[in-house]
What does this fold into?
Amino acid sequence: MEMRQLVYNAVKCLECGETIVSRTRHDYQLCGCPNETMADGGLDYMRYGGVDMSKVEPIEIYADDDFEVVRKFAVRGSRGKDGDQPLSWIPICDMSDDYLKAVMDYGGDNWHIELINKEIEYRKTM
It folds into this structure.
């Protein structure tokens, strides 16, 4: 069985309204309300929970979902052009053309590079 590539792993706590995102493996994130809604697993696996599971809404986006959605949720971590900025997560739809090219030059996981290529082709049709 082929596994689908997760590109966004999050849950929404329906008690406090917070969206909790897990970005990397073992990145355990927890909301601060009494429901203790949590997300874990980054893009390797999806694990979530809470005191009352009826107040936990999983949000999962996969690489093979509609690209109009994927491009808004697939991100690349960045510490700025010189590498000295705080870590931020940039959706591929918000990356400049130069940034996309730099990612292609730098490299990454095959599935991520495929999405970057898809974004470059997508922009040619806009």
Remarks:
- The mean pLDDT is 94.
